[in-house]
Automatic annotation (TrEMBL):
Biological process terms in GO annotation: transmembrane transport
Phylogenetic classification of the source organism: Bacteria, Pseudomonadati, Pseudomonadota, Betaproteobacteria, Burkholderiales
Entries under SUPFAM superfamilies matching the protein: Periplasmic binding protein-like II
Protein name: ABC transporter substrate-binding protein
Pfam annotation, one family: DctP
Entry-linked InterPro entries: DctP_fam (IPR018389), TRAP_DctP_sf (IPR038404)
Amino acid sequence: MSRTSRPVRRLLGIAATVFSMTAAGQALAQAPITYKVIGQPAATGLVQKNYERPFFEEFAQRTGLNINADYKPVDQLGIKDTEQLRVMKAGLFDIVSLRVSQNSRDEPTLLGLDLVGAAPDYATARKVYEAYLPVLDERLQKQFRIKLLGAWPFGPQILFCKKPVTSLADLKGLKVRTYDQNLAKFMESVGASPVPLSFTEVHQALSLGVVDCAITGPSSANSSGWPEVATHQYGLGVQMAMNAYGIGLNQWNKLSAEEQAKLQAAFTKLTDDIWTYSEELTADAMACNAGKDSCEMGKKYHLIDSPLQDADRQVLTEAVAKISVPTWAEICDKANKSCSADWKATAGKVIGIE
Protein backbone atom coordinates (compact mmCIF):
# COMPACT_ATOMS: atom_id res chain seq x y z
CA MET A 1 0.00 0.00 0.00
CA SER A 2 1.54 3.40 -0.94
CA ARG A 3 2.13 6.16 1.60
CA THR A 4 -0.55 8.32 -0.03
CA SER A 5 -3.16 5.71 0.66
CA ARG A 6 -3.14 6.34 4.40
CA PRO A 7 -4.55 9.90 4.14
CA VAL A 8 -7.05 8.59 1.64
CA ARG A 9 -8.15 5.88 4.04
CA ARG A 10 -8.35 8.43 6.83
CA LEU A 11 -10.52 10.74 4.72
CA LEU A 12 -12.75 7.86 3.74
CA GLY A 13 -13.11 6.93 7.41
CA ILE A 14 -14.03 10.47 8.35
CA ALA A 15 -16.52 10.65 5.50
CA ALA A 16 -18.12 7.38 6.61
CA THR A 17 -18.36 8.64 10.19
CA VAL A 18 -19.90 11.94 9.09
CA PHE A 19 -22.37 10.09 6.86
CA SER A 20 -23.44 7.75 9.65
CA MET A 21 -23.82 10.68 12.09
CA THR A 22 -25.87 12.59 9.53
CA ALA A 23 -28.06 9.58 8.83
CA ALA A 24 -28.57 9.04 12.56
CA GLY A 25 -29.43 12.70 13.01
CA GLN A 26 -31.95 12.58 10.20
CA ALA A 27 -33.52 9.43 11.62
CA LEU A 28 -33.74 11.10 15.03
CA ALA A 29 -35.31 14.20 13.49
CA GLN A 30 -37.82 12.06 11.64
CA ALA A 31 -38.80 9.92 14.63
CA PRO A 32 -42.43 10.68 15.55
CA ILE A 33 -43.19 12.38 18.82
CA THR A 34 -46.18 11.41 20.93
CA TYR A 35 -48.71 13.76 22.53
CA LYS A 36 -50.37 12.70 25.77
CA VAL A 37 -54.12 13.30 25.37
CA ILE A 38 -57.00 13.53 27.88
CA GLY A 39 -60.21 12.37 26.18
CA GLN A 40 -63.90 12.56 26.95
CA PRO A 41 -65.20 10.01 29.45
CA ALA A 42 -65.81 6.71 27.65
CA ALA A 43 -69.16 6.57 29.44
CA THR A 44 -70.46 9.57 27.49
CA GLY A 45 -71.10 7.44 24.43
CA LEU A 46 -71.05 7.62 20.67
CA VAL A 47 -69.30 10.95 20.04
CA GLN A 48 -66.33 9.70 22.03
CA LYS A 49 -66.48 6.23 20.49
CA ASN A 50 -67.12 7.07 16.83
CA TYR A 51 -65.40 10.44 16.34
CA GLU A 52 -63.02 11.49 19.07
CA ARG A 53 -61.21 8.22 19.78
CA PRO A 54 -60.68 7.30 16.07
CA PHE A 55 -59.32 10.81 15.42
CA PHE A 56 -56.61 10.46 18.05
CA GLU A 57 -55.88 6.83 17.21
CA GLU A 58 -55.16 8.00 13.63
CA PHE A 59 -53.64 11.31 14.70
CA ALA A 60 -50.64 11.36 12.37
CA GLN A 61 -52.79 10.42 9.38
CA ARG A 62 -55.57 12.90 10.21
CA THR A 63 -53.21 15.84 10.82
CA GLY A 64 -50.51 15.10 8.26
CA LEU A 65 -47.92 15.58 11.00
CA ASN A 66 -45.23 13.22 12.27
CA ILE A 67 -46.99 13.07 15.64
CA ASN A 68 -48.82 10.25 17.38
CA ALA A 69 -51.30 10.49 20.24
CA ASP A 70 -51.43 8.50 23.46
CA TYR A 71 -55.17 8.88 24.01
CA LYS A 72 -56.88 8.05 27.31
CA PRO A 73 -60.48 8.89 28.33
CA VAL A 74 -60.49 10.99 31.49
CA ASP A 75 -62.51 8.39 33.40
CA GLN A 76 -59.73 5.86 32.81
CA LEU A 77 -56.93 8.14 34.01
CA GLY A 78 -57.94 8.55 37.63
CA ILE A 79 -58.36 12.27 37.00
CA LYS A 80 -61.64 14.05 37.73
CA ASP A 81 -63.13 15.87 34.76
CA THR A 82 -63.13 19.01 36.94
CA GLU A 83 -59.32 18.94 37.13
CA GLN A 84 -58.45 19.15 33.44
CA LEU A 85 -57.23 22.75 33.44
CA ARG A 86 -54.96 22.13 36.42
CA VAL A 87 -53.21 19.10 34.96
CA MET A 88 -52.80 20.86 31.62
CA LYS A 89 -51.27 23.92 33.30
CA ALA A 90 -48.87 21.61 35.14
CA GLY A 91 -47.74 20.26 31.75
CA LEU A 92 -48.79 16.68 32.50
CA PHE A 93 -50.69 16.37 29.19
CA ASP A 94 -50.36 17.94 25.75
CA ILE A 95 -53.95 17.99 24.43
CA VAL A 96 -57.24 17.98 26.31
CA SER A 97 -60.83 17.30 25.33
CA LEU A 98 -62.04 19.95 27.75
CA ARG A 99 -65.37 19.58 29.53
CA VAL A 100 -66.45 23.22 29.62
CA SER A 101 -69.02 23.44 32.42
CA GLN A 102 -67.18 20.99 34.64
CA ASN A 103 -64.05 23.17 34.62
CA SER A 104 -65.82 26.50 35.05
CA ARG A 105 -65.05 26.69 38.78
CA ASP A 106 -61.35 26.96 37.93
CA GLU A 107 -62.05 29.38 35.06
CA PRO A 108 -65.54 30.99 35.10
CA THR A 109 -64.91 32.55 31.68
CA LEU A 110 -65.49 29.09 30.20
CA LEU A 111 -69.16 29.12 31.12
CA GLY A 112 -69.84 32.02 28.78
CA LEU A 113 -69.82 29.40 26.04
CA ASP A 114 -72.78 27.57 27.59
CA LEU A 115 -74.96 29.75 29.84
CA VAL A 116 -78.35 28.32 30.79
CA GLY A 117 -80.94 29.28 28.19
CA ALA A 118 -78.54 31.22 25.96
CA ALA A 119 -78.37 28.57 23.22
CA PRO A 120 -81.54 26.47 23.17
CA ASP A 121 -80.80 25.00 19.73
CA TYR A 122 -77.86 24.05 17.52
CA ALA A 123 -78.04 27.08 15.22
CA THR A 124 -77.92 29.54 18.11
CA ALA A 125 -75.22 27.55 19.88
CA ARG A 126 -73.04 27.73 16.77
CA LYS A 127 -73.39 31.53 16.63
CA VAL A 128 -72.47 31.87 20.30
CA TYR A 129 -69.48 29.57 19.84
CA GLU A 130 -68.08 31.39 16.81
CA ALA A 131 -68.49 34.79 18.47
CA TYR A 132 -67.07 33.83 21.84
CA LEU A 133 -64.23 31.40 21.05
CA PRO A 134 -61.58 34.09 20.40
CA VAL A 135 -62.29 35.65 23.81
CA LEU A 136 -62.05 32.29 25.52
CA ASP A 137 -58.91 31.32 23.63
CA GLU A 138 -57.12 34.50 24.73
CA ARG A 139 -58.12 33.95 28.35
CA LEU A 140 -57.02 30.30 28.49
CA GLN A 141 -53.71 31.10 26.83
CA LYS A 142 -53.03 33.75 29.44
CA GLN A 143 -54.20 31.87 32.54
CA PHE A 144 -53.52 28.22 31.71
CA ARG A 145 -51.19 28.28 28.70
CA ILE A 146 -53.76 26.41 26.61
CA LYS A 147 -54.45 27.21 22.96
CA LEU A 148 -58.03 26.40 21.90
CA LEU A 149 -58.46 24.50 18.63
CA GLY A 150 -62.27 24.30 18.49
CA ALA A 151 -65.40 23.35 20.39
CA TRP A 152 -68.53 21.23 19.90
CA PRO A 153 -71.76 20.37 21.76
CA PHE A 154 -73.05 17.07 23.08
CA GLY A 155 -76.47 18.61 22.43
CA PRO A 156 -79.45 19.91 24.40
CA GLN A 157 -79.24 18.95 28.06
CA ILE A 158 -82.63 17.71 29.18
CA LEU A 159 -84.29 16.22 32.26
CA PHE A 160 -84.43 12.51 33.09
CA CYS A 161 -86.60 11.76 36.10
CA LYS A 162 -87.84 8.79 38.10
CA LYS A 163 -90.96 10.73 39.05
CA PRO A 164 -93.63 12.13 36.69
CA VAL A 165 -92.32 15.43 35.27
CA THR A 166 -94.38 17.14 32.59
CA SER A 167 -93.21 20.72 33.16
CA LEU A 168 -90.70 22.77 35.13
CA ALA A 169 -93.39 23.30 37.79
CA ASP A 170 -93.21 19.57 38.62
CA LEU A 171 -89.60 19.98 39.75
CA LYS A 172 -90.60 21.87 42.88
CA GLY A 173 -89.18 20.03 45.87
CA LEU A 174 -87.28 17.48 43.75
CA LYS A 175 -83.53 16.82 43.95
CA VAL A 176 -81.92 17.40 40.54
CA ARG A 177 -78.39 16.52 39.47
CA THR A 178 -76.53 19.56 38.14
CA TYR A 179 -72.94 20.11 36.98
CA ASP A 180 -72.25 23.85 37.19
CA GLN A 181 -73.21 26.92 39.25
CA ASN A 182 -75.31 28.49 36.50
CA LEU A 183 -77.51 25.43 36.11
CA ALA A 184 -77.81 25.04 39.89
CA LYS A 185 -79.11 28.60 40.20
CA PHE A 186 -81.71 28.00 37.48
CA MET A 187 -82.92 24.83 39.19
CA GLU A 188 -83.28 26.74 42.45
CA SER A 189 -85.35 29.36 40.63
CA VAL A 190 -87.97 26.76 39.67
CA GLY A 191 -88.08 25.26 43.16
CA ALA A 192 -85.76 22.27 42.73
CA SER A 193 -82.83 21.34 44.96
CA PRO A 194 -79.63 21.12 42.89
CA VAL A 195 -77.25 18.26 43.69
CA PRO A 196 -73.76 18.43 42.13
CA LEU A 197 -72.71 15.01 40.81
CA SER A 198 -70.19 13.83 38.24
CA PHE A 199 -71.61 12.05 35.20
CA THR A 200 -70.41 8.62 36.30
CA GLU A 201 -72.19 8.93 39.68
CA VAL A 202 -75.63 9.61 38.26
CA HIS A 203 -76.90 6.13 37.36
CA GLN A 204 -76.44 4.88 40.90
CA ALA A 205 -77.73 8.13 42.40
CA LEU A 206 -80.97 7.84 40.42
CA SER A 207 -81.27 4.17 41.28
CA LEU A 208 -80.86 4.78 45.03
CA GLY A 209 -83.00 7.91 45.14
CA VAL A 210 -80.13 10.24 45.97
CA VAL A 211 -81.60 12.41 43.20
CA ASP A 212 -85.05 12.41 41.62
CA CYS A 213 -83.90 13.82 38.28
CA ALA A 214 -80.68 14.37 36.41
CA ILE A 215 -79.69 16.51 33.45
CA THR A 216 -77.64 15.40 30.45
CA GLY A 217 -77.95 14.91 26.69
CA PRO A 218 -80.31 12.23 25.31
CA SER A 219 -77.48 10.27 23.67
CA SER A 220 -75.26 10.29 26.76
CA ALA A 221 -78.20 9.14 28.88
CA ASN A 222 -78.92 6.34 26.42
CA SER A 223 -75.31 5.14 26.29
CA SER A 224 -75.04 5.13 30.09
CA GLY A 225 -78.32 3.38 30.76
CA TRP A 226 -80.06 6.20 32.62
CA PRO A 227 -83.45 5.10 31.20
CA GLU A 228 -83.02 1.89 33.21
CA VAL A 229 -83.45 3.91 36.41
CA ALA A 230 -85.70 6.76 35.16
CA THR A 231 -89.30 6.87 33.96
CA HIS A 232 -89.67 10.25 32.19
CA GLN A 233 -87.69 12.48 29.85
CA TYR A 234 -88.54 16.13 29.37
CA GLY A 235 -86.89 17.66 26.30
CA LEU A 236 -86.34 21.26 27.42
CA GLY A 237 -82.71 21.95 26.45
CA VAL A 238 -81.29 24.08 29.25
CA GLN A 239 -77.68 24.00 27.96
CA MET A 240 -75.71 22.46 25.08
CA ALA A 241 -72.90 20.75 27.06
CA MET A 242 -70.04 22.34 25.15
CA ASN A 243 -66.62 20.73 25.00
CA ALA A 244 -63.42 22.17 23.60
CA TYR A 245 -60.09 20.91 22.31
CA GLY A 246 -56.99 22.63 23.59
CA ILE A 247 -53.24 22.12 23.20
CA GLY A 248 -50.58 23.25 25.65
CA LEU A 249 -48.83 26.39 24.43
CA ASN A 250 -45.44 24.75 24.91
CA GLN A 251 -46.27 22.14 22.27
CA TRP A 252 -48.12 24.60 20.02
CA ASN A 253 -45.16 26.99 19.94
CA LYS A 254 -42.79 24.19 18.94
CA LEU A 255 -44.71 23.73 15.69
CA SER A 256 -43.88 25.70 12.55
CA ALA A 257 -46.54 27.96 11.05
CA GLU A 258 -47.23 25.29 8.43
CA GLU A 259 -47.57 22.58 11.08
CA GLN A 260 -49.87 24.77 13.16
CA ALA A 261 -52.08 25.31 10.11
CA LYS A 262 -52.30 21.55 9.48
CA LEU A 263 -53.17 20.83 13.11
CA GLN A 264 -55.80 23.54 13.19
CA ALA A 265 -57.37 22.33 9.94
CA ALA A 266 -57.63 18.78 11.31
CA PHE A 267 -59.36 19.93 14.50
CA THR A 268 -61.69 22.24 12.57
CA LYS A 269 -62.83 19.29 10.45
CA LEU A 270 -63.24 17.10 13.54
CA THR A 271 -65.36 19.65 15.40
CA ASP A 272 -67.46 20.45 12.32
CA ASP A 273 -68.16 16.74 11.86
CA ILE A 274 -69.16 16.38 15.52
CA TRP A 275 -71.58 19.33 15.30
CA THR A 276 -73.42 17.49 12.51
CA TYR A 277 -73.24 14.09 14.20
CA SER A 278 -74.39 15.49 17.56
CA GLU A 279 -77.60 16.83 16.05
CA GLU A 280 -78.34 13.48 14.40
CA LEU A 281 -77.61 11.64 17.65
CA THR A 282 -79.89 13.85 19.71
CA ALA A 283 -82.91 13.22 17.49
CA ASP A 284 -82.23 9.49 17.37
CA ALA A 285 -81.60 9.16 21.12
CA MET A 286 -84.83 10.97 22.00
CA ALA A 287 -86.67 8.37 19.90
CA CYS A 288 -84.67 5.46 21.35
CA ASN A 289 -85.23 6.51 24.94
CA ALA A 290 -88.97 6.57 24.31
CA GLY A 291 -88.93 3.23 22.46
CA LYS A 292 -90.02 4.63 19.10
CA ASP A 293 -89.63 2.71 15.83
CA SER A 294 -87.45 5.47 14.35
CA CYS A 295 -84.65 4.51 16.79
CA GLU A 296 -81.56 3.44 14.79
CA MET A 297 -78.29 4.16 16.62
CA GLY A 298 -79.12 3.74 20.29
CA LYS A 299 -80.75 1.21 22.59
CA LYS A 300 -84.54 1.19 22.90
CA TYR A 301 -86.03 1.99 26.28
CA HIS A 302 -89.54 2.93 27.36
CA LEU A 303 -89.38 6.38 28.94
CA ILE A 304 -92.47 8.56 28.93
CA ASP A 305 -91.68 11.46 26.59
CA SER A 306 -93.42 14.44 28.18
CA PRO A 307 -94.52 17.07 25.61
CA LEU A 308 -92.61 20.34 25.82
CA GLN A 309 -94.58 23.24 27.31
CA ASP A 310 -94.43 26.63 25.56
CA ALA A 311 -94.57 28.32 28.96
CA ASP A 312 -91.35 26.54 29.96
CA ARG A 313 -89.61 27.71 26.79
CA GLN A 314 -90.51 31.25 27.82
CA VAL A 315 -89.23 30.70 31.36
CA LEU A 316 -85.91 29.49 29.95
CA THR A 317 -85.62 32.42 27.55
CA GLU A 318 -86.29 34.94 30.32
CA ALA A 319 -83.80 33.19 32.60
CA VAL A 320 -80.85 34.25 30.42
CA ALA A 321 -81.12 37.94 31.32
CA LYS A 322 -82.71 37.47 34.75
CA ILE A 323 -80.64 34.61 36.17
CA SER A 324 -77.90 33.19 33.93
CA VAL A 325 -75.95 36.30 32.98
CA PRO A 326 -76.20 38.14 36.36
CA THR A 327 -75.32 35.03 38.39
CA TRP A 328 -72.38 34.17 36.18
CA ALA A 329 -71.15 37.76 35.75
CA GLU A 330 -70.88 38.28 39.51
CA ILE A 331 -68.57 35.28 39.81
CA CYS A 332 -66.68 35.71 36.54
CA ASP A 333 -65.93 39.42 36.90
CA LYS A 334 -64.17 38.73 40.20
CA ALA A 335 -61.78 36.36 38.48
CA ASN A 336 -61.58 38.20 35.16
CA LYS A 337 -62.36 41.91 35.29
CA SER A 338 -63.60 42.21 31.71
CA CYS A 339 -65.42 38.86 31.66
CA SER A 340 -69.08 39.86 31.34
CA ALA A 341 -68.25 42.90 29.19
CA ASP A 342 -66.34 40.70 26.74
CA TRP A 343 -69.25 38.25 26.65
CA LYS A 344 -71.85 40.95 25.99
CA ALA A 345 -69.73 42.38 23.16
CA THR A 346 -69.50 38.98 21.45
CA ALA A 347 -71.85 36.14 22.43
CA GLY A 348 -74.40 38.46 24.00
CA LYS A 349 -74.52 40.56 20.87
CA VAL A 350 -75.49 37.63 18.63
CA ILE A 351 -78.41 36.64 20.89
CA GLY A 352 -79.59 40.17 21.65
CA ILE A 353 -78.31 40.61 25.22
CA GLU A 354 -76.01 43.57 25.81
